[in-house]
Amino acid sequence: MADRKSAEDRSNMNAIYKPVSGYFGNIVKEVKDFGSAYKKYSDARGDIRPGADARAVQAGKNYDAAKGQLGGALIGKRYDSKGRSK
Fold this sequence. Notes:
Elements: H1 17-45, H2 52-74
């Protein structure tokens, strides 16, 4: 039995479980990204420092994108680091 190179290495995994593992791994990643975007959006809405409105608008756009990517991940889509569908 060969050793795995990392936790992401699924080369020795049974072929039946490989896509299932990838699907749930993608869901977990998108939930983390969504939670992070939600926290930043929530913090930006309550900010009163100069330039807060612009930061809140950008955080809102990032939140909407993360929400869409989470929805896409639930139906099986994958996204790269720039938010484009693979």
